[in-house]
Write a structure and sequence with these properties.
This protein has a single domain (24-138), classed as Lipocalin (Beta Barrel). It contains 1 helix and 8 strands, in the order H-E-E-E-E-E-E-E-E. It has one helix at 2-19; strands at 30-33, 39-46, 49-57, 80-87, 93-100, 105-115, 118-125, 130-138. Strands 1-2-3-4-5-6-7-8 form an 8-stranded antiparallel beta barrel. A hairpin with a 4-residue loop joins strand 7 and strand 8 (130-138). The radius of gyration is 20 Å and the shape is globular.
């Protein structure tokens, strides 16, 4: 019994004395390029959340798949495709909404930062059970 307490005390001391350092959250704000280079988005703060707008398209087009007929003729350039992303409590992860202009649907979305210059953007259905994503590269 004394040996167990001594082991626990030594483990606690090791953690306190410098074993664990806090992990700083990566900065997801900036400009990002989609794999293949077909589009670029700018992630910025909007209130206490993160949002992202399309700032460049290799082949500019309209939002033809939008479920709102009034929005189908608007250009995609400038459309907010990432919105309301808030920290999840996990390091370098945010949760919010992602608009997919290819099918006109809005999904539960996640941003994960595996490194300072890579951002995984995912859209999920069924409460996050099924997700599809891409890893974007920082350009600014």
């Amino acid at each position: 019994m004394t040996k167990t307490w001594l082991t626990l005390l030594m483990l606690a001391a090791a953690l306190i004395m410098g074993g664990a350092t806090p992990t700083l959250a990566a900065d997801a704000t900036g400009e990002w390029a989609r794999p293949g280079g077909s589009s670029k988005i700018r992630i910025s703060a909007c209130g206490s959340a993160l949002c992202g707008k399309l700032i460049w398209l290799k082949s500019p087009r309209n939002d033809t798949a939008n479920p709102d007929p009034a929005k189908r003729t608007r250009p995609l350039l400038g459309v907010q495709i990432v919105r309301s992303m808030k920290p999840t409590g996990k390091t370098n992860q945010w949760k919010g909404k992602v608009y997919n202009a290819e099918d006109g649907k809005t999904y539960t979305g996640f941003i994960q930062m595996p490194s300072a210059n890579r951002m995984k953007l995912e859209g999920c259905v069924m409460g996050g059970l099924i997700c599809k994503g891409e890893t974007w590269t920082r350009i600014k």
